[in-house]
Amino acid sequence: MNVTAIKRVYFVGIGGIGMSALARFFSDRGAVVSGYDRTETELTRKLAAEGMAIHYTDDVALCDKATELVVYTPAIPKDHKELNWYRDNNYPVYKRSDVLQWITEAMHAITVAGTHGKTTISTTIAYLLRETSYGCNAFLGGISVNYERNYWHSDNNTAVIEADEYDRSFLKLFPDIAVLTSIDPDHLDIYGTPAEMEAAFIQYTKNIKPGGTLLVKHGLHRQSELKGPNTITYSLQNDAADVYAENITQEHGGYIFDVVGKGWRAEQMRLRIGGMHNVENSIAAIAVTQMLGIDIAAVRSALATFRGIKRRFEYLVHTDEHVYIDDYAHHPEELAALIKSAKRLFPKRKCVIAFQPHLFSRTRDLADGFAHSLDMADEVILLDIYPARELPMEGVTTETITSRMANPAHTVLSKEGLVEYVRRARPALFITAGAGDIDKLTGTIKEILQQA
């Protein structure tokens, strides 16, 4: 389908982070965009302010009957009245991943996949391309702090797309440059086994267009099975990789480092966001800019102004008295990287983390990993499991994690109890983490820690 010719689009689940990026894509091109979502959020309010008609009741009477295209997210339940009405009346109904497929077929596509890091790397790439005047159309799974957006437009026929493994959506994409960050087990409710999920990532690399390039983290499990017309590896500091960092130093909660590639070198690159994993993410993004032939000096200048992504090692308070970091981490490996980085950056402070587990199935499947990662913190507070799309599972609770923890300094609190804890303890280094609704507490916590 020619996405540029569509003049009227209806979104079922318009408020999702990936769906809203597509909604903005069509709206910026002059299409009439409207849609449904279950609840009003800050993001849906912004979409409405940009001219999109949005409602929050599943009511066929509120549908756009004149739409040329209906886009839905796989998170929508099968009994959704509006979605089924469109299907029953033979409207063109497609998943979000189908539309992204058309975009990758029509544009020079850079896609970023992996269990961890894909939002940060895709946003960093898109930011660098925009700030160096190369230009791109960005479809992101997070909100850029610099632009307060998850989508931006360019006349350059290049797209940067976060490739989501949930529901195997990323297998519909056909990239020119495919980035692969990790293939750790997740979404086992979809894939069944780690081996099946790994097979999907291998298939992702087989979708690269002829003459395209795979940029993959060095040393991944089953790396020899990954396919790409050309392959480049990257790593944080392993010089066996094609691209890696040297001379990393910490500075004011960020980093200065050099990047070494085959036939090129980028010195004194400055990253103002925390986390050594974000240095590695930046290495991947810088490597992509060099595949595109962008001047290193322009990349250096752009990276120094990059402020990161909301809820990705985001400093909400950063003073002499308190450091408060909020992060989307919802997988054991992400939690480990988060805690390790925070403790390394602020070694003299007691590290307290509040974690909200996301999904009963993920808690069940990865409980040992969560316990091991959380043990790295000095003190741990856990909230009840955020169910998202799932119903409760018998025997699966937050205690499924705490019963496996070796660190005795842990407790389970309500959201109200967490706020009261922060008010009373006023921790010097505090982290909130999780992909549920723990972020709704961040404004209150920030306000408490900023008080004299």
Automatic annotation (TrEMBL):
GO molecular function: ligase activity
Any matching Pfam family: Mur_ligase_C
Top-level EC class as recorded in UniProt: ligase
Keyword Mitochondrion: no
Domain Mur ligase C-terminal: start-end pairs: 311-435
Amino acids binding ATP: 114-120
Predominant location: cytoplasm
EC number, UniProt record: 6.3.2.8
Top-level taxon: Bacteria
Chain ranges of the Mur ligase central domain: 112-288
Name of protein: UDP-N-acetylmuramate--L-alanine ligase
